[in-house]
Amino acid sequence: PDGHRTWAIPSYPEIELSLVGSAAIGREIDAIQPQAIHIATEGPLGWAARRACLRRGLPFTTSFHTRFAEYIETRLPIPGIGGLMWRLLRRFHSPSQAVMTPTATIAKELEARGFVNVKVWTRGVDHRKFNNLPRDYFTLPRPVILYAGRVVKEKNMEPFLKLDIPGTKVVVGDGPEKKLYEARYPSVEFIGYLREDTYARALASADVFVFPSLTDTFGLVMIEAMASGTPVVVSNRSTLPEVVGDAGVIIDAGDETALREKLLRFAEDPVFWQDRATASLQRAASFSWQRCAE
User: Fold this and answer.
1) Predicted TM-score of the model (pTM)
2) Rounded to whole angstroms, how far apart are CA atoms 293 and 275?
């Protein structure tokens, strides 16, 4: 969106969309004269680039990495809005040479919804930034059980936030629900955004990472935690089990009792969690920038 007028998404002021037409994007494309283009998102900038490419006969690929239909359905509970969004998304991606999506689970779902030319393009992290870091960021009562990501209701955070368990629950990140959750769950430590190096140290200093989302297409924060040697607990929905594999602790979505029991096991069975931490490092190693580029 650099160089264009933008407007903030309602209820997501930290995310700004560009107000730009295909003619302006077309001029930028003509100045670069590319042989091919990758369109990363389905926002206004993506639609403008799509139109400009089609007019010029330029081949392009697209990415599907956000469940916009479900998110909009959550925010705007209007009958039929989800189906309408899926039709728009299908139309957006239909001329793409390859619809790149991060997991095989999402690829199969998109194909079942009528998407074509779907390819799996995995994610990766820079392991130099997350490995062998000091585990001294927190001086809070242990165990430190951490969530990192946007603080929004779509992430299904409340089953984690409401848990009554020993130690300290920590939330790293910001979002439209942060003030509401801070008021509703005063026992939780909300520490907001962290800069890159500090964020990596916080991940490494946590005892357990919890990611309760039911809709994420990948959950890159899970790989960052695993690359830091921090075991992860995830729900059995969406693509999360595929991503964490046998290294993750997987519970039934919405089973707060199971979540509590798994986290209580941290104090009772440290050997189990140490095994999970070792497995997490091994699993995370397969998600590298080199593999992503290849």
Assistant:
1) 0.86
2) 30
